[in-house]
Amino acid sequence: MKLIFALTGLLISSVAFARPVPVNPAVTPDDPLPVRVLDCGGSIIKQVSDRFGNRIGAPGSSGSSVGFTNGGYNVSYDTVDAIKNTRVSDHVLICLMYIPDPDKCPPGDNRGRIYTVTNLRTIESWTLPDSQHMCGGA
């Protein structure tokens, strides 16, 4: 019983003296997709599924995909555990890591951008493209 009171007292005192964690006010859940390599922004998970819109891990499912409220999308032929652990409405940080050479892509074909996404609830990340094929692909 004394141990419970001691632990409760310790918990209350640590909460009372906790300092707020600094957060970048320039990143919000409503940010547009980043357009420059190494730029980041915030968004919210809108959809989690396999590549065909089914539940990840369901019989016949294939790969992983995730959609964001800012219009972004990631997809993989593999089942990505970090995406499988993600829920609709989770907040994420999205960073643009790669843009294909526009001189090697057909006009208007912007596929193949690669993003690193961190789920702020699970603190798990994945790095995936925005399409199953690079620009000029199938």
What are the key terms here?
138 residues, alpha+beta, six-stranded antiparallel sheet, 2 helices, flat
> What is the element string, with H for helices and E for strands?
HEEEHEEE
Distance between the termini: 67 Å
How many E strands?
Answer: 6
Number of helices: 2
Question: Structural class given helices, strands, pairing?
Answer: alpha+beta
Instruction: Catalogue the unreliable spans.
Output: none
Can you give the helix content as a percent range?
Answer: 10-25%
Computed over alpha carbons, the radius of gyration is: 20 Å
Query: Any idea how many domains?
Result: 1
- Mean pLDDT comes to 88
Short characterization:
With 138 residues, this protein is of the alpha+beta class. It is 14% helix and 28% strand.
Report on the structure:
- The chain is of the alpha+beta class.
- It has helices spanning 2-16, 81-84, and strands at 40-49, 64-68, 73-76, 91-98, 114-119, 125-129.
- The chain has a six-stranded antiparallel beta sheet.
- The model has no long low-confidence stretch (mean pLDDT 88).
Describe the SSE topology:
Blueprint: H1 2-16, E1 40-49, E2 64-68, E3 73-76, H2 81-84, E4 91-98, E5 114-119, E6 125-129
Antiparallel strand pairs: 1-2, 1-4, 2-3, 4-5, 5-6
